[in-house]
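Many introductory courses stop at the sequence. We go one step further.
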Amino acid sequence: MALFFDRQWFEEKLAERGLNQRILAAAAGMGEADIVLVFKDQRELSAEEVGIFADLLGVPPAEIADRAGVSTPVPGQGDLTGRLLALEKRVAALEAELARLKGR
């Protein structure tokens, strides 16, 4: 479980980028129930999720880990190809979520 999740900080960062919890969850491959638990400080982020949140919110992974109270290791830079593939996957998830929202 997370040590401390700074919900207000995350909500402010999401608002600055015009994002919401649902989009954040979709990009990280999380279900809606998972993101709710994260924001309630009842589920800790994985290192991969920390990296995804950092990319979307435009902050270093270490800041996400700190603001989320993560005790798992913060992801490193890794190889460029792996990071690009992961980003492409996240973009596809975001595009699918946007298409779903527009279909409402």
